[in-house]
Write a structure and sequence with these properties.
heterodimer; A: alpha+beta; Immunoglobulin-like; 2 domains; three-stranded mixed beta sheet; 10 strands; elongated; B: 220 residues; mainly alpha; Cytochrome Bc1 Complex, Chain D, domain 2; 12 helices; 0% strand; binds copper (II) ion
Chain lengths: 164, 220
């Protein structure tokens, strides 16, 4: 089969561009530690407030034995509970969040903390916050009329200022 | 002596920790409960409601005393949840706890269906403050306050699953119960949802919101 030389050039160029694109994505994903949240763990959303892990007294921030931080949160129309969390900078943080009602998401701009919160599942994100300051955590999945108001505060403090 | 006292305080704190470790409500909207409430029988509910009439009126709209809530037009799941919360002492009120304890889940579902089917009384005309209307329709972002209407409905008639109707609710009861959320005396809202909202409202705002909802004409 004859393929015109110019045509051939374009075919190679298309392949090159596609792989270059994938390469850029992969490089960023590796550099910034971006990955799809891949925790598949189920939970009964209707009885979330009675569960061991997500009951009203269990949610919040705590320190694990190995010095890392564990954050347990609930998303429910129209808020995240607790409404504000404080974590130390440059410290591994495991965030586990579940929905008490419908589909929500949670996202903090400029960090890789971004996950869907699907009713019936526990979402888990492992990250390390690199900048101190106060940042909003937004719901990024439309969940109803109060969706625009669904956000909470993330405060990242220097390690020595962090108290539980 | 001092260490003894500190120890006692510590033990008391641990003790109260156990109490606060209880969930704010044990009602779970699983399919069996939804089914039970959706199929409440208003005819039997009318009989169950007989002793209630002394305070709530036969159709749930009598104003026997100040601070008695309106039940007419209230959503059945909300009534069911409150009765269960009284029954299990998640919401405290001597009289209501006694009444709720004497009823079965089925009777509660029936009485809830009965009061839900009753028409609201005519709205109480009042001057509506702009501030209250803004909180209801727009909320207040910086205070993390969603609009009341996002949850309680544009018409104030409540929403799934157990968000109460507020339209036509008596202003005096509205204020008492909002203040009870604010102080934590009423704590049967899961994940503090109404408590957090009430805590970020001023007393004046609560009064104005009460007047707003008492005057709200939800139509039919
Ligand atoms: Cu949401």
């Amino acid at each position: 089969m004859h393929i015109d030389a110019t045509e051939k050039k374009w075919i190679y160029l298309t392949f090159l561009m596609t792989f270059a694109g994938i390469g850029v994505l992969a490089a960023y994903a590796i550099k910034d530690n971006i990955y799809p949240p891949s925790n598949v763990e189920t939970i009964d959303s209707a009885a979330l407030h009675l569960s061991d892990e997500f009951n009203e007294d269990a949610i919040g921030v705590r320190r694990e034995k190995d010095g890392s931080i564990r954050v347990t949160m609930v998303a429910a129309r129209y808020g995240f509970f607790p409404q504000g969390i404080t974590v130390p900078v440059d410290t591994p943080v495991k965030i586990r969040i579940a929905s008490a009602d419908v589909l929500h998401g949670i996202h903090t701009v400029d960090t890789n903390f971004n996950t869907m919160v699907v009713p019936g599942y526990v979402s888990e994100v492992n990250t390390t916050f690199k900048k101190t300051g106060t940042f909003p955590m937004f719901c990024n999945e439309y969940c109803g009329l109060g969706h625009d108001f669904m956000w909470a505060r993330l405060t990242v403090v220097p390690k020595e200022k962090f108290k539980l | 002596m001092r260490t003894m006292r500190n120890l006692c305080v510590l033990l008391a704190m641990l003790g109260s920790g156990v109490v606060s470790g209880e969930p704010s409500s044990t009602v779970v909207w699983d399919s069996a409960t939804r089914h039970l409430v959706a199929n409440g029988d208003p005819v039997n509910g009318k009989e169950v409601a007989d002793p209630c009439s002394a305070c709530h009126g036969e159709t749930g709209k009598a104003k026997v005393r100040p601070n008695f809530p309106l039940l007419a037009g209230q959503t059945a799941p909300y009534i069911y949840k409150q009765m269960m919360d009284y029954k299990e002492a998640r919401r405290g009120h001597g009289i209501m706890q006694n009444f709720a304890s004497s009823l079965s889940k089925k009777e509660i579902a029936d009485v809830a269906a009965y009061f839900q089917s009753q028409a609201l009384p005519p709205p109480v005309p009042a001057k509506v403050s702009e501030r209250a209307a803004r909180l209801v329709d727009k909320g207040d972002g910086p205070r993390l306050l969603p609009p009341c209407s996002a949850c309680h409905g544009r018409d104030g008639k409540g929403a799934v699953v157990d968000v109460p109707a507020l339209a036509g609710q008596r202003a005096d009861y509205f204020i008492v119960t909002m203040q009870a959320y604010k102080s934590g005396e009423r704590a049967n809202d899961i994940y503090n949802r109404m408590r957090l909202i009430a805590q970020s409202l001023s007393d004046d705002e609560i009064d104005e919101l009460a007047a707003y909802y008492a005057a709200l004409d939800a139509g039919d």
